[in-house]
Each structure stands twice: as C-alpha cells, then as structure tokens.
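lol ok so funny story. i was supposed to be doing the assay writeup but got distracted and ended up predicting the structure for this chain instead. priorities right. anyway since i did it might as well share w the group, maybe its usefull for someone
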Amino acid sequence: QPRDRGRGAEEGEVGAHLREPRLERGRLGGDVEAEPAPGLDYAAIAAQAQPVASEPLLVPVLDDSWSANSARFDVRNEVPTWYVGFITPDVQFIALNQGIGGNPSWLSTLLDGAQKTGSVTVDGVTWVVYDQRDRADVGNFAYSLATTNGASTIVLSGTATDTEFAFLAAS
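and the output, tada:
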C-alpha cells in the first residue's frame, strides 16, 4: 500500500497539539512519527486547525473509495502548509499541499525542482502540470498539479492516474 514519503523534515510545526495523537511528533530521544492511519478523519483535523490558519483549509468531499492516511498543518519553508495524503480508489497516492502565502521557493522545494511540462484545465481552473513519470526515482512526485486560489498555492502530487488527479482537483 502506498505511503506518504514527504520530502524533508517539518520546520516549526504550527498547532502541533491540533492533530490526533497518532499523527503527533514526539521527543523521545529524537523525532518520532507515528505510522500513517488509513481512514483518517482529515475533515475533523482541518476543523481543529482552521482557527490558526489565515485562509480556509481545503477539505475535498470524496466518496468512500478514497481514504486519507495522513493530515497535518505545519510550516514548511516558512509557509503555513495544510497537508493531506490520500489513497485513491486504484490504491495509488495523491498528496494535497495547500501553502498559505506559498511562494515560488516553497513550490520549487515542495516539487524538488521539477519543471513545468504543460497545463490542464479542470472545472474552469487552470493547473500547471509537472509530469515526471518518465524519470527514475521520483517516488510520490511522479505527477503534480499546481494552482493558486486567493492567498493559497495548491499542489497535488502523486502516483495516481490523470483521471484520479482530475477528480481530486475538481473536488
């Protein structure tokens, strides 16, 4: 089963107490992260984190064939970031990252320097495409979509099909 293999350590987590205990990072001789939990209630975690976020956090409404295995609100590269890891109906992975005030540096770091390969429009929203499926060792960043909405930069990254990316982007 696919797992979230996020790049880099979190920097200065915001509202760490807001996450469910199984997502908590502890200090027991170093950083310890609990295993991701399939079927996680990411909407409840978003509701708990919302008071410390300056923008509405994205909570896609998905059917039961989708599940979340990880969710957190923290700071990455000095940008408050809402993250949810999804397992798709085809048992692939898509990460949703919402950077509040996301800037080009945040985006480049998140995408590990991937280059734009095109664009796609989903439900009237234009997304920049970063397709690295033909490259080796890209892990969960084989395909990514990025767009802006208000003060947020939204990035979807993963191993899923174009159809599953479009479904999540439209949600």
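The first strand starts at residue 25 and ends at 27. The first helix runs from residue 42 to 49.
back to the writeup now i swear
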